[in-house]
Amino acid sequence: MTSHAEAGQTTPPALIADPTPIGLICLAIGCAALVPIAFGLSLTPAALKTAAIFCLLFGAGGQLVAGLGNLLNRNLYGGTLFTSFAFNWVINWWVLDGLSRGQVADATVVFAVDVCFLIVFLAFTYGFGFFSSLLMAFLVDIDVLYVARIARHLGGGDWLGPVVGICTVALGAISLWIAFALLINPTAGRVVFAFPGPAYRPRARS
User: Which residue has the higher pLDDT, 19 or 3?
Assistant: First the structure.
């Protein structure tokens, strides 16, 4: 899953065990905590504060560990994605904790950041297609989630709320699938959780 091998270069040895499953499992847990809120099933101050602490510990903490670990292993893609995600989950914690106390984040600032995130994730979607179509699907789900968030801000209607919820569920499910593929497949010595190859390959160097 590295571009070094495809470019004919020697892949540098990993300094620590692959931290990617940690980040993915923690991401799934963070998503699970947001699902009742995304679908409007539990919007009490207690629910918001409970989801906030899961966002901080698992969403932010777990993905920061994965991001820094990937950077240590010279995995630029994984390190960049997980680390930026980690800081975004700190914002989720801050927003939910504030809502539990009646404080609302400025919608205009959040909208501007969502647009920036969408641009970043669209580029990542293309990039991860060189590694695995499943990783690409993971990013496509995030793209759709942010498009729904932006459309809702622009007055797209209440029906976009469940779209965000469905994308959140799908994000958690895909995260777990990839994590299990990375953990279980090598242990079992066979493919228990399918992990397809690249959606496309880089242009051959002349």
Answer: 19
